[in-house]
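Students often ask why we bother encoding 3D structure as a string. The short answer is that it lets us treat folding as translation between two languages. Here is a chain of 88 residues written in the first language.
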Amino acid sequence: MKKKTLAKSAKEFDRRFNEGEDIHDLIDMSKAVVLHRGKKVRITLDISESLVRDIDSIRQKIGVDRGALIKVWLHERVKQETASNKSA
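And here it is in the second language, the structure alphabet:
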């Protein structure tokens, strides 16, 4: 079996992944970290229909579902607030 050549850049890696290439040989899993964030809790939010449309417009452009995008945004904001509170 021929050994795969490593991607020379993140852009090349992304292209190869997006084209469906098996990229397992290109990843060093010895440095991978699994994060367990604890028990999941369901929350309900009432937000305006226009905000949902705006969120959906963004998520469709990047190809993720609404819940995943909101979770990422919340996580990023919490990290930002935590960092700014530590420096204050």
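Translate back mentally: The chain has three helices and no strands. Keep this in mind for the problem set.
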